[in-house]
Amino acid sequence: MGDRVSISFKNGDEESVSLFHHWGGVEFPGMALKWAEDFKKSYGGHSGTPITRMEPRTIMVQFVVALHDSKEFQAHDFKDGELVHNKDLLTYSLYFGVDSSDGDNSDNGHFTIDLDTLEMKHQEFDFEKWKLKA
Fold it and tell me: DSSP assignment, residue 11?
């Protein structure tokens, strides 16, 4: 049970690690693309730092930091029947993988966000490749 998906950022030949989200659905990649568009408008286009050069590995870190500000991505649990959020921790639903086949994105596949063009490409989950790893 889940709504599994993964994303990565790419710029030229460089690609970040993949970020997997167990409950992300197709909304998660859409949210990441919107975040990347806003981030690039604010910080991209310069050659001074890895952030302003939009280097994918660094941008993935910035994206994860940005998730912390959203209650949706805060860790949560139930206490006395009430949903309680922990603003100090991120949800257990997120994890990194070396690439798109290093985790479970079997519900929605993998989405790669090109930081140069701000286009998103979808890659279906490869069941055969997954079976070979198991």
Answer: E
Quick one: residue 116, left, alpha or beta (phi over 0 = left, psi -120 to 50 = alpha)?
A: alpha
**Sequence-separated contacts (24+) of 31-40 with Cβ below 8 Å:** 32/7, 32/63, 32/111, 32/113, 33/111, 33/113, 33/118, 33/120, 35/63, 35/66, 36/9, 36/63, 36/113, 36/115, 36/118, 37/118, 39/63, 39/66, 40/115, 40/118
pLDDT of residue 98: 97
Intervals of the chain under pLDDT 70: 125-134
Q: Which of 120, 72, 126 is nearest to 94 (CA)?
A: 72
**What is the C-alpha radius of gyration for the chain, rounded to an integer number of angstroms?**
16
Task: Return the pLDDT at 20.
Answer: 98
Say how far apart CA 27 and CA 8 lie, in whole Å: 15
| pLDDT at residue 15, as a whole number | 98
Residue whose structure tokens are 């940005």: 66
